[in-house]
Design brief:
globular; two-stranded parallel ribbon; TIM Barrel; single chain; 8-stranded parallel sheet; binds zinc ion
Length: 292
């Protein structure tokens, strides 16, 4: 983020802080404190692209979050939404794509601190060792996580999720057989290979234009417990708990602070994606594994 933008954002954050504190107290009294779900991608010192953050930046995020928020799993986030009441500032941490570099610092740090994580990986990357085309196009040869690494992470309590087979834009797929493979079959394959339940699905890219209403139903029918987008948005108690809205974060601490403490402008502007008219019924927590 350029310096001028960071300075502007910091001024905006400081100026709106009294309002944010007032809103936080009001929301807590009403049991309406939202759950903020963060999406990270890659933590490595090389700053290779805009979705890589350095170990120091990641550590500074945790240092700011830890005293202010309760860290919960996606399952507990869903419990708070279904329970229709939450009075504590709450954050859930997720990672997308499955880069091996995350095993160096970020994931061991989270495991040591017992912070719940849901870690979304792609089938082609994990099962065939394929690097992402968008990374190769930029000259980056980032190694994806292996099955063995993911088994070890699962043994340490990290929840492994599915991020499709090929990191496909699911809104651009109309062939039902391809959609089924990208959403369901690959989830079953990951589950079998890693020997752990794969309970959540995350849309690649995750903006409104990448979301496909059919995928929500397909995922529900297959046995997934929830589906994640990443266009931003806060999750309020009483919201549909099957669709979890996430916020993509980069290395900037002020951007994280602005988001996580409930930005009044974004709270008003970001509209929720509805996959109706046939809304998936709320389900009891923990449906367990996909029907393999
Ligand atoms: Zn992704």
């Amino acid at each position: 983020m350029p310096l001028w933008k960071r300075t502007l954002l910091r001024s905006y954050y400081q100026a709106t802080l009294p309002w944010r504190r007032h809103r936080a107290r009001q929301a807590a009294r009403q049991g309406r404190t939202p759950v903020v779900i963060l999406t990270y991608h890659r933590v490595a010192a090389d700053r290779a692209n805009s979705w890589t953050i350095t170990p120091d930046e990641f550590a500074s995020h945790l240092a700011w979050l830890e005293p202010r928020f309760e860290f919960v799993s996606l399952e507990e986030a869903q419990n708070r939404l279904r329970g229709r009441s939450n009075s504590r500032p709450t954050v859930s941490i997720t990672f997308d794509d499955g880069y091996a570099d995350n095993c160096q610092l970020a994931l061991p740090l989270l495991i040591r601190r017992r912070i719940p994580v849901t870690y979304f990986v792609c089938g082609a990357a994990v099962l065939k060792g394929e690097m992402f085309a968008h990374d190769l196009a930029m000259g980056n040869r980032f190694r994806p996580n292996t099955v063995d690494e993911l088994r070890a992470l699962a043994a340490d309590g990290i929840s492994i999720g599915c991020h499709t087979r090929s990191h496909a834009d699911l809104a651009a797929i109309s062939d039902p057989a391809i959609l089924h493979d990208e959403v369901v079959t690959v989830g079953e394959e990951l589950q079998q290979a890693i020997r752990t339940p794969v309970r959540y699905l995350a849309f690649p890219y995750g903006q409104h234009r990448h979301l496909n209403p059919r995928v929500f139903h397909l995922a529900y029918d297959a046995g997934y417990d929830g589906v994640c987008s990443s266009y931003g948005g806060y999750n309020y108690p009483g919201d549909d708990a099957f669709h979890l809205q996430r916020v993509c974060v980069d290395g900037s601490l002020i951007r994280l602070q602005n988001w996580a403490s409930i930005d009044p402008v974004r709270e008003r502007r970001i509209r929720r994606f509805f996959y109706g008219p046939e809304i998936v019924p709320r389900q009891a927590p923990t449906r367990g594994a996909l029907h393999a």
